[in-house]
């Protein structure tokens, strides 16, 4: 079922309904409409200033010491042990606090993918998740990214997927489900797994949100029973062909040196209906399983290091071209512009993040990693 994704084509991997009655779009007033994005985070609205003493550095998971990697996955498992804060009668899949994030991601998919909110909304989503690991579970280490270019030759050969207790869990049990057909001009071969993940920290994990066909992006709805609980295992189908083809070093360097925001988005997400996957979708399909679905992919714990790497590529592009750092690509605020929505600007209010953050935040407040709510950097820049 997870391989039957014809309408996905080259969509970024990963809603019109809302969680806890939080409307994705509203007429909320901005905190300070006259302020520029670079002014945020200087002790005005968001708290302490970001400086060399307060900044955190994000690092490559594969370069962390084994004990550091385990400390991170222990914190993720701690979040999985915390109670959900979402109405379980309405959202039965929200079985714990970790799954609250995945549920909110499903419910916001139509408004935060294939549109101008994608980069900044996910940047803050990751920040909320990292902050939760620290505040709820006492995590004190670095927030890791998955450098999927460095593992492109064979993802299973690196610590992140070796299946040990110091990994992000391994591949799925081999299950030859055949090639993945994405459209009339694009198909990818089956990977080296396909079944349930049975090794590492997340062995035998249940991922209860059933597969949602990406065709729902074309009408802006979710299927009936989208949030019904299902006893489905976490699955992976690690795929070296996909990683070698779409997430290699050359592809990342090209994105980090895109000429403008529109070209950056193209190199990141490809073009629906063509054979261009882009590095983002390429990374998703190199993992397979739930990661093949734009809606439900955030169930897999690797989703967070993957998207942190996407944020690293975005941050590198901003650093490489500071004159373009606060530019947007000119698209609207809904996937495929369904339903039709206005062009997003720096002054546009972001869709919310469910109960984790329901106050209005403008796009301009999330542009810089060292301003607004943020105070982080990466251990290196893709140059």
Automatic annotation (TrEMBL):
InterPro entries: Di-copper_centre_dom_sf, Tyrosinase/Hemocyanin, Tyrosinase_Cu-bd. PROSITE patterns: TYROSINASE_1. SUPFAM superfamilies: Di-copper centre-containing domain (SSF48056). Keywords: Metal-binding, Oxidoreductase, Signal. It comes from the Eukaryota. Residues 1-22 form the signal peptide. The keyword Oxidoreductase applies. Residues 113-130 form the Tyrosinase copper-binding domain. It holds the Pfam family Tyrosinase. This is Tyrosinase copper-binding domain-containing protein. It comes from Exophiala sideris.
């Amino acid at each position: 079922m997870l391989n039957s994704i014809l309408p996905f084509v080259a969509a970024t991997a990963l809603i019109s309904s809302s969680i806890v009655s939080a409307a994705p779009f509203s007429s909320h007033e901005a905190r300070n409409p006259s302020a520029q994005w670079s002014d945020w985070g200087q002790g005005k609205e968001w708290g302490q200033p970001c400086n060399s003493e307060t900044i955190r550095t994000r690092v490559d998971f594969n370069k962390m010491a084994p004990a550091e990697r385990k400390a991170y996955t222990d914190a993720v498992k701690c979040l999985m042990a915390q109670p959900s804060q979402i109405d379980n009668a309405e959202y039965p899949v929200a079985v714990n606090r970790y799954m609250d994030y995945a549920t909110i991601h499903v419910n916001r998919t139509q408004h935060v993918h294939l549109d101008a909110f994608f980069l900044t909304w996910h940047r803050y989503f990751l920040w909320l998740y990292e902050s939760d690991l620290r505040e709820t579970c006492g995590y004190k280490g670095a927030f890791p990214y998955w450098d999927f270019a460095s593992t492109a030759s064979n993802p299973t050969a690196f610590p992140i997927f070796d299946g040990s207790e110091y990994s992000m869990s391994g591949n799925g049990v081999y299950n030859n489900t055949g090639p993945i057909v994405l459209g009339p001009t694009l198909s990818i071969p089956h990977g080296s797994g396909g079944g349930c993940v049975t090794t590492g920290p997340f062995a035998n994990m249940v991922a209860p949100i059933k597969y949602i066909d990406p065709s729902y992006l074309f009408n802006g709805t979710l299927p009936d029973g989208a949030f019904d609980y299902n006893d489905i295992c976490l699955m992976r189908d690690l795929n070296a062909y996909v990683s070698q083809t779409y997430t290699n070093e050359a592809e990342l360097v090209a994105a980090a040196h895109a000429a403008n925001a529109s070209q950056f988005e193209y190199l990141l997400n490809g073009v629906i209906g063509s054979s261009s996957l882009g590095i983002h979708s390429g990374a998703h399909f190199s993992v397979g399983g739930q990661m093949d679905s734009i809606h439900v992919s955030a169930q897999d714990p690797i989703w967070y290091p993957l998207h942190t790497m996407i944020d690293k590529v975005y941050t590198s592009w901003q650093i490489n071209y500071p004159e373009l750092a606060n530019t947007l690509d000119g698209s609207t605020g809904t996937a495929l512009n369904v339903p039709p929505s206005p062009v997003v600007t720096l002054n546009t209010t972001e869709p919310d993040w469910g109960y984790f953050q329901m106050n209005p935040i403008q796009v301009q407040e999330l542009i810089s990693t060292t301003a607004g709510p943020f105070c982080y950097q990466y251990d290196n820049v893709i140059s």
